[in-house]
Inverse folding.
DNA sequence: ACCCTTGTTGCAAACGATTTGCATTTGCAT
DNA sequence: ATGCAAATGCAAATCGTTTGCAACAAGGGT
């Protein structure tokens, strides 16, 4: 059960320099099971290498996004949050009380979206589906 | 065929003071067929009353959102855009080439979302579905 | 192992969108 | 008309993010 991509070789292959800050950030997002924002990544990074700057975190996240290594999410009110691009596509349910993000996937839903776009004469490039709710009790 | 809500009496009823800037902004969003952002609303407002400030536009939009009179959308990269809350709920398809926003609605889709949230033990408060695509040719 | 070139960094300042403190004005109930 | 709380304009503050620039370091060539 292979869990994480080997980002380092991927980046190397993409002609990107493997610098110290990048290694640290790569390690962090590779291990993250949550959806940290830039500041959270920065805080975790500083623990490993105190000289890393927030600017570098932002630059690196942008780079990784362009390389398709991470996905950027802009949930309501709040900074962008990232997750590594392992695994298959999924959408998000955000718990309004805790901010926790729950992932889900529905093939039916995907198909339905494509069908709708198709009827409107469009090809979907990507989409964004977020459900905001509270735990039923 | 009644087209626009009578925001003024609604607001009055909600105990909100009907000030000059608010009347102007109300008129603007009542007539808007597009999805203007705060700056666009401000520009249109200044033409009617030159003394209106951008801060008041922001304050008023927040107020109207809380009253349920307008909906705020945060499409990818760019300021929040508003639309009046007339008519029924719909989602958006954003044309990546033109930035044009196409509205659509699917009852099946809505139901499916609710069902998914339900299975996860959640009640949906609201959701956000945006399709980003290009016109098929 | 040591350059050399060029990409990358840290810092601080700049940025765009939005919010806020405060003194002044204004709606509107009396 | 009068008074008072609510709303305004202005400028400064805030938040998340980007950028200019001089110092620095990765990693290919020698």
């Amino acid at each position: 059960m292979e869990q994480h991509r080997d980002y380092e070789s991927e980046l190397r292959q993409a002609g990107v320099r493997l610098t110290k800050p990048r290694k640290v950030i790569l390690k962090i997002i590779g291990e993250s099971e949550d959806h940290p924002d830039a500041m959270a990544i920065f805080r975790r990074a500083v623990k490993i290498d105190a000289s890393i700057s927030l600017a570098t975190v932002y630059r690196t996240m942008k780079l990784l996004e362009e390389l398709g290594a991470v996905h950027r999410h802009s949930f309501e009110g709040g900074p962008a949050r990232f997750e590594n691009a392992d695994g298959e596509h999924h959408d998000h349910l955000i718990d309004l009380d805790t901010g926790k993000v729950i992932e889900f996937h529905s093939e039916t839903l995907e198909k339905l979206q494509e069908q709708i776009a198709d009827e409107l004469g469009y090809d979907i490039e990507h989409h964004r589906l977020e459900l905001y709710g509270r735990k039923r009790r």
